[in-house]
Amino acid sequence: MNTTESQLRSLAELAPHQHHRGYLVEVILQHNHNHTINVADALRFRPISDETKSKYYDLFKQGHSPSSAHLEYETNLMYQQNAQLLADRNVNPIISDIYNLFNKWRKNNLGVRTGKELFADLEARINKYNETNKDLGGKASVQRFNNSEGKHDHPLILAICTPFMSRVHKHIQQAGELVFIDSSSSFDDYNNSMFVISTSSAAGGLPLVVTSGESTSIINSAMTHLKYLFPTYSFYRKGSPGNIITDDSQAERSGLKKTWPSASLYLCVFHFLQTMWRWLLHSSNQIQSQHRQHLMHLIRNMVYAKTEYILNNKYKDLKQNLISKQYINFNEHVNTYWERRQEWAIICYRDNTSTRGINTNNYAEAGIRILKDIVFQRIKAYNLVQIFEFITVTFEMYYERRLLSVAYNRMDIHFTSSQRTGSIPGK
C-alpha cells in the first residue's frame, strides 16, 4: 500500500486563484511504500506484461492446454537460473490467470462453442481452406446437424481431405489395394465420432471424417461426403479400395459396403480373436476356466487354416470335440461366425498379394493414437473449429515431418518390403 502524506495549509497561504476557486486543502502525494516490495507476496500482484501474454498465446496456438502451457513456460523460466522470476506475476502468471488468458484467446481465435455462429465461422474457414488448397487436392465440407421434429436424418458431418492425404491417394500403390478403418469418440464435449482411414504406407494417413453418430445411415452419409472430397485419382486411380479391414462393427461395415460395393471387407484378426476370448471369459457364458484355452485353440486352428478343405475339417473337429460338446452356447456362438468365415479366415480366403500379408488394422489404431496423444494431446477440443484446425494443420504437419524423417533416413526402425513398395507422396 502507498502512504499518503497530507500537508494542510491555511486558506491564507493558498494562492489567491485557489482561494477564489474554493479550495480549502492542498494534498501532496508521495509514493513511499510502507512495506518491502521485492518479495513474493508483493510481486504476485503485479499486472501481467504484454510480452508474457504473447508467449502464452503462442503456446495456445501450438495446441497446449492451460496446464501444459504453464508447465512448458515455467520450465523455460527455470533455465534462466533466476528463481525469483517464478514469484513475479508480471513474468509468471498464476494458474487462474493462465486459464483466463486461455479463455480469452479461445474466444478470439475459435469463436463460440456451439450454435449458428459456430457453423457460420466454420463454413467460412472451410471455404477459405478450399480456395487456398484447390490446386493441391485439399478439400473439406461440413453438414450442419439438424434434429427438427426429432428426426436424425441430417447428422453432423465434417469431412476433410488434406493435400497430403490427396498425394497419398495419387502416389501410394497400397491405397488402391488395402485400407484400414477405425473410429473413436471423446474428441470433444459432444462425443462426436472420428473415423480414420489409413493405408499400409510408411508415410501414413488417408482422409478422416467426424460424425455425430455411428449408425449405418450416418456412416453411409459420411462416406458419401468423403467420396465427394476425394480427388479424381482416389485410391491409386481405382476409385475404390480393393480390400478394407475393420473391427466387427456392423453399422460401420454396412455403411462401407454400401459406399464401396466392389471392396472386400475383412475382419481384423486380432480383434476377432480378442472378441472370442472375451466371450469365453465372460461369466454369463459359464465356460469353465480349465476349458477356455482348449476352446480358444480350436478357434485359432480355424482362423489359420491354410486351405478351405483344412478349414472345414477344423470346423468338424471343433463340433465333435468332447469339451466343445459340453457347451451348447459355445457351439451356437461359433455357428454365427462360421457363416462369416470369409471375413476372418485369414489364409484360405485372403489374397496375400493384395493384402501384403497384413491381417490387422493396427495402422488405423496407430492413427487414432496419434490423434489423441500428439494432435489433441489428450484434451478435448473446444469446438468444431479447433478440430478442423487440428486436422488441417497439426495432423498434416505431423505426417509431413514423418515423411521427411523417412526421406532423410532418420527413423531408427526396420521397414519391411511391403512398406517400401510404392513411391513417397511428395509434392
Task: For the largest sheet, list the strands in their spatial order.
Answer: 3-4-7-6-5-8-9
Can you identify the CATH superfamily of the largest domain?
Ribonuclease H-like superfamily/Ribonuclease H
Structural class: alpha+beta
SSE pattern: EHEHHHHHEEHEEEHHEHEHHHHHHHHH
Q: If helices are DSSP runs of H or I spanning 4 or more residues, what is the number of helices? A: 19
Number of domains: 4
Shape: elongated
Mean pLDDT: 84
CATH class of the largest domain: Alpha Beta
Strand content: 5-15%
Report the end-to-end length measured between terminal Cα atoms.
63 Å
CATH architectural group of the largest domain: 2-Layer Sandwich
CATH topology term of the largest domain: Nucleotidyltransferase, domain 5
Query: Percentage of helical residues?
Result: 40-55%
Low-confidence stretches: 1-12, 416-424
Radius of gyration, in Å, reads 32 Å
- Number of separate strands: 9
Question: Any overview of this molecule?
Answer:
This protein is α+β, with helices and mostly antiparallel strands and 427 residues long. It has four domains: 1-34, no CATH class; 47-110, no CATH class; 116-267 and 360-409, 2-Layer Sandwich (Nucleotidyltransferase, domain 5), CATH 3.30.420; 269-355, no CATH class. The protein is 48% helix and 10% strand. It has 19 helices and nine strands. It has a seven-stranded mixed β-sheet with strand order 3-4-7-6-5-8-9, sandwiched between helices. A two-stranded antiparallel sheet has the order 1-2. Strand 5 (178-184) and strand 6 (193-199) form a beta hairpin. Helix 4 (66-78) crosses helix 5. The chain starts with a strand and ends in a 7-residue tail after the last helix. The model is unreliable at 1-12 and 416-424 (pLDDT under 50).
